[in-house]
Amino acid sequence: ALKRCLHVTASESLICASGRNQNDAPVVRIYDTNATFLRDVQLGSDATTTIVLSTDSAQLLVGDSRGAVAIFDVEAGQIVREYKPHTASVRGAKWTSDGALVVTGGDDGRIVAGDYGRAAGCISFSQPLAKKSPITSLDVNGDARRIVAGTRAGDVAVVDLALGLAHNFEGKDPVAAVKFSGRVKGGGGRIVAAQN
Predict the structure, then answer these.
(1) Which is it for strands 37-42 and 69-73: parallel, antiparallel or unpaired?
(2) Segment 75-91, tens digit of pLDDT
């Protein structure tokens, strides 16, 4: 069965949702904020677990239950890159604000960051978290130097991409959402984490 996924762009100008078209094929449907249908991007399978548009809305990332990611050219509706950064479901994905990196988190407890749009899929960071608990939420700060991820075990990890280090903060309850909030001196940003 097709899992329903929803993504609203940061500018709140586009909405995309997984679903089925009139021929019952799995698709990601893209709408403007007036709920006007713009286009479908046809998917190859029903295994979709996460979707996210690039910051310029030119590319669509689709993660699936096999740990694979496909990046589509939205206008052409064609896959431009496929890779398998995880050994289990992809649960979260984020493009950096400059569109240079794609960050994914999965049920395998790994955070993976790579330049998949420009280079040949070079991985710049791939790290299992201390407890290898499934990733439930992730975010990238404004200058694309840090990633924050929440886990089902209740931990919050902050990853410094420049240093290749992950700092883990233990919690008790599953993390529902993590977010960098605002800007602070040095471009770090404050972290907000919500537990169930």
Answers:
(1) unpaired
(2) 898 999 888 989 999 98
